[in-house]
Design goal:
This protein is mainly α. The protein is 37% helix and 5% strand. The termini are far apart.
Length: 169
């Protein structure tokens, strides 16, 4: 017969671990400002709707198949979004993308230089983005790879960029 310390007894069953059950997030009540606005009758409900921006992987692939809009190198392009109107975590409409070459060993690509502002001043970059987007549109129309929904999104998205580019005229 083995003697055991009274604080440590021989296990009779093996320990079983339970699955970790994540609790669903608690629904937060309205903040003080929202409650006051509701009490006064000036509150309005924020509706999260569909994004008005075009998102099309097929279109981005068609653009990436074109040669670089800056240096003309082929088969190394990526679909680059214009930087004129994007903010923190926001991308511009996919109808405005244009091909720029990627970084490869020993060579910084035009896409990286463009995004970092290494090629142009801010005004020159907006003008170049407008020209690149327009040239990309013309090339894809010629190849019959510019669908109607991309054209509709393009017409909406290009207007602010056009105003920015032609503000000085």
């Amino acid at each position: 017969m083995k003697a055991y310390n009274s604080t440590f007894k021989a296990p009779t069953k093996s320990m079983k671990r339970s699955a970790w059950n994540k609790q669903p997030p608690k629904k937060r009540s309205a903040g003080l400002g929202q409650r006051v606005a509701e009490a006064v009758g000036t509150a309005f409900k924020h509706l999260r709707g569909e994004s008005s921006l075009l998102r099309s992987e097929a279109h981005r692939k068609n653009v990436a198949a074109l040669p670089c809009a800056k240096c003309g190198i082929e088969k190394l392009s990526q679909a680059a979004h214009p930087n004129a109107f994007k903010g923190m975590g926001l991308k511009a409409c996919d109808s405005l993308v244009f091909p720029l070459c990627s970084t490869r060993p020993g060579i910084t690509g035009c896409h990286a230089d463009h995004d970092q502002g290494a090629i142009y001043t801010k005004q020159e970059r907006a003008k170049a983005e407008w020209e690149f987007a327009d040239a990309t549109r013309a090339e894809l129309i010629q190849q019959n790879k510019w669908p109607r929904e991309v054209e509709e999104a393009y017409q909406k998205a290009i207007a602010p960029l056009t105003r920015l580019v032609h503000a000085d005229t």
